[in-house]
Structures are given as structure tokens and as C-alpha cells.
Amino acid sequence: MPVTQISDLDELRTAIRSNDRVIVNFGAGCCKNCQIMEPIYDKLSNEYSNIVFISVPIDNDEAVVKKYKIEVIPTFKFFEHSVEAGEVTGAIVCALMKGVKMLTAV
């Protein structure tokens, strides 16, 4: 399943509430590490159809940054039944994979 692009706090909250397993990639177009992780994230979204993969550009959205306490980009947050179950900050592929496997183990 392709990555869903979301750019609004309300839309993001709805997507998290409406799906059992969600990973949100908070990033920015000008971030080199975000650009490195993007194709990996895209590939994972096609491999794990039981997880909803969302990308949120935080360039101009202070509400999203504040609500989800984003201090480093990229930040990947893992949600299970609307509850945050984990977080990975930075371009650490093995940590991202560990989070994906944690969500699929349920």
C-alpha cells in the first residue's frame, strides 16, 4: 500500500484513530536524512500491507510539531490502536525495521 501524505493535524488524528497499526514519518523536504529514509519507508509500505504508513511534512505546521513533540527529523512514531507504541528518531534503518516488526508481531 502506498504511503499516505497528510498535511493537517485533524486529518492525522483521524487516520491514527481509524487504523489499528500506523507508522507516521515526520519530516521535511529540506532534510537530507529525511530524503535518505524516504525510499526505504516507501518500500516498507509496500511490504507490510497490514500497517498504514503516513508521511507528514512538518515544514510549516507548528501544531503537528507541538502535538507530537517532534524535536528531530526524521521522526517515526508507531501507533497501535491509537496509542503511541514507540518512536525512532534519525535515519536509523535497523531501528525503523525493529519498530515495524514490533507492530507486526501483535
Structure in words:
This protein has helices spanning 9-18, 32-47, 62-67, 93-104; strands at residues 4-5, 21-27, 52-57, 75-80, 83-89. The protein is of the alpha/beta class and 106 residues long. A hairpin with a 2-residue loop joins strand 4 and strand 5. The model has no long low-confidence stretch (mean pLDDT 95). It has a single domain (4-104), classed as Glutaredoxin (3-Layer(aba) Sandwich). Strands 1-3-2-4-5 form a five-stranded mixed sheet, sandwiched between helices. It comes from Coemansia pectinata. Residues 1-106 form the Thioredoxin domain. This is Thioredoxin domain-containing protein. Keywords: Disulfide bond.
Biggest beta-sheet profile: 5 strands, mixed
Percent in helix: 40-55%
Number of strands: 5
CATH homologous superfamily grouping: Glutaredoxin
Percent of residues in β-strands: 25-35%
Q: Measured on Cα atoms, how large is the radius of gyration?
A: 12 Å
Count, helices: 4
| Global geometry | globular
SSE pattern, N- to C-terminal: EHEHEHEEH
CATH topology: Glutaredoxin
Q: What structural category characterises the helix and strand content?
A: alpha/beta
Do you know the CATH architecture? 3-Layer(aba) Sandwich
Strand order of the largest sheet: 1-3-2-4-5
Mean pLDDT: 95
Assigned CATH class: Alpha Beta
Distance between the termini: 19 Å
Which regions contain 5 or more consecutive residues with pLDDT less than 50? Answer: none
- Counting structural domains, the number is 1
Concise summary:
The chain is of the alpha/beta class and 106 residues long.
Helices and strands, with pairings:
Blueprint: E1 4-5, H1 9-18, E2 21-27, H2 32-47, E3 52-57, H3 62-67, E4 75-80, E5 83-89, H4 93-104
Parallel strand pairs: 1-3, 2-3
Antiparallel strand pairs: 2-4, 4-5
Protein name: Thioredoxin domain-containing protein
Keywords: Disulfide bond
Pfam family, one: Thioredoxin
